[in-house]
Amino acid sequence: MTSGIEGKVVAITGASSGIGEATALLLAERGAKVVLAARRSDRIEALAARIAGASGEAVAVVTDVKRRADLSRLVATARERYGKLDVLVSNAGISPISALDDLRVEDWEAMIDVNIKGVLYGIAEALPVFREQGSGHFVHTLSTAGLKIVPTMSVYAGTKNAVRAISEGLRQEAGETLRVTTVSPGFIRTELAGSITDPDARSGIQAGMDKIAISPDAIARAIAFAIEQPAGVDVGEIVVRPTAQS
């Protein structure tokens, strides 16, 4: 029996490492054609070669989600190469967390640009394509930081909850043929801590990751579960966290 993933064309932002990379590998293994998007061309080109070496199909598109034109090129590449786009996984994100008193305004703006506007640009480019096709699936990576608000994460949590609200509105507007899924990871072994500019906040997050973080494969499996459902089944929200996380 074929899976509900085989033959689907899936574009993934933030595909150069962590959750995005794990998702690309798993979906390609299950027969999807993956379009890899990230700023680091060497990483996504190497990943595309790895997938091709395992008899999968992948293409790399250098993408900065802060630029709408890059998202336009990503969607266009999927259609030109494979004739369609079935799923857009908006996974790119940064987390330069800090106390509000530190007034790291540039970090706040960066999170808004990547975590919110990057998702909106993806919607702007993929939604007309999905409408034209009569089918399509948005998958947005959120965070458990938006479910349990803690000090230093106010703005980061705010960006994730903004996308949560946008996703719910999109789901309600989507109608009967489009699907919208949000996935909220807890502590996952990724490079996200590297985007934290405050050294104390970075060390705290890294310590938590070192202690209890789980593999990004866990999130990849959750995303695959949502994608493989029959067309009439919309998996709205998935939360995946370590059992040790409070």
UniProtKB/TrEMBL annotation:
<keyword id="KW-0560">Oxidoreductase</keyword>
<dbReference type="InterPro" id="IPR036291">
    <property type="entry name" value="NAD(P)-bd_dom_sf"/>
</dbReference>
<protein>
    <submittedName>
        <fullName>SDR family oxidoreductase</fullName>
        <ecNumber>1.-.-.-</ecNumber>
    </submittedName>
</protein>
<dbReference type="GO" id="GO:0016491">
    <property type="term" value="F:oxidoreductase activity"/>
</dbReference>
<dbReference type="Pfam" id="PF00106">
    <property type="entry name" value="adh_short"/>
</dbReference>
<dbReference type="InterPro" id="IPR002347">
    <property type="entry name" value="SDR_fam"/>
</dbReference>
<dbReference type="InterPro" id="IPR020904">
    <property type="entry name" value="Sc_DH/Rdtase_CS"/>
</dbReference>
<comment type="similarity">
    <text>Belongs to the short-chain dehydrogenases/reductases (SDR) family.</text>
</comment>
